[in-house]
Amino acid sequence: QVQLVESGGGLVQPGGSLRLSCAASGFTFSSYTMSWYRQAPGKERELVARVRTAGGRTDYADSVKGRFTISRDNAKDTVYLQMNSLKAEDTAVYYCNARSYRPFGGGAIDYWGQGTQVTVSS
User: Fold this and answer.
1) 69-82 burial, b for 16+ CB within 10 Å, e for fewer?
2) Which of 109, 91, 113 is nearest to 14 (CA)?
3) Radius of gyration of the chain (CA)
4) Considering only CA atoms, which of 80, 81, 90, 78 is closest in space to residue 119?
5) Cα(118)–Cα(48) distance, rounded to whole angstroms?
6) Pairing of strands 58-60, 116-120
7) Fewer beta carbons within 10 angstroms: which end of the chain, N or C?
8) Are 111 and 1 in contact (CB under 8 A)?
9) Which helix (H) or strand (E) holds 114?
10) What is the rounded CA–CA span in Å between residue 23 and residue 21?
11) How far apart are CA 60 and CA 49, in angstroms?
12) What is the tens place of the pLDDT at every residue in 86-102?
């Protein structure tokens, strides 16, 4: 049974920091690209950061570059999102995503967590 369990969300003041964690189980974690998405009220879900498998290459949305850092620990089957210098516009539900691809062009395999709320407010 596949599970992605996020934790670490909460209420923080502008300029503060939070660290999100996503613990995975039920699939071969090291073979999956891991990402964090977020969705604010009334907006579409957007990619925040992504860390690939081999080599651990990372990608970030322009809005979070220099403030957020994604990392993964394949020994613990966990992906993290360190969020610094938080702004009110970072307020959203943050979702963990695991993605791989079936062989021979069979399409993507996506798993999602349940989400964790991050609220940045004074």
Assistant:
1) bbebeeeebbbbbe
2) 91
3) 14
4) 90
5) 13
6) unpaired
7) N
8) no
9) none
10) 6
11) 4
12) 999 999 999 999 999 88
